[in-house]
Write a structure and sequence with these properties.
This protein is mainly alpha-helical and about 80 residues long. About 40% of the residues lie in helices and about 0% in strands. The chain has 5 helices and no strands. The longest helix is centred in the C-terminal third of the chain and has 16 residues, at about 65-80. It is elongated and about 65 Å long. The mean pLDDT is about 85.
C-alpha cells in the first residue's frame, strides 16, 4: 500500500512556519526589570482574574523571569499585597 502525498491547500501555503516566525523576546529582559514582591502593579500583569499565575507561554517571560515572578507572587500573597 502506497501512501499518497497530501496536496498543499491555500491555507497551508499562506501560514508561516514556526521556524520562519520571529522569536518572542522576554519583556523583562528587554527592559531590565527587577522582579520584586513589593511591586503589586507589575505582578498583577501575570495573574488572571481568578488569581492564578499565568504560564510562561502566555506571559511571554523567559524561564528565569518566570521563576522570579512565581516566587514574588507567592511572597506577595502571603503578605496580602496581591490577591
Amino acid at each position: 500500500m502506497v501512501k499518497k502525498k497530501r496536496e498543499k491547500t491555500k491555507r497551508d501555503s499562506t501560514r508561516p512556519r514556526m521556524s520562519e516566525m520571529p522569536k518572542r523576546k522576554c519583556k523583562l529582559c528587554e527592559d531590565q526589570v527587577q522582579v520584586d514582591y513589593k511591586q503589586p502593579e507589575l505582578l498583577r500583569r501575570f495573574i488572571t482574574e481568578r488569581g492564578k499565575i499565568v504560564g510562561r507561554h502566555s506571559s511571554g517571560a523567559c524561564a528565569k523571569h518566570q521563576r522570579e515572578i512565581t516566587r514574588a507572587i507567592k511572597r506577595a500573597r502571603i503578605m496580602l499585597l496581591v490577591r
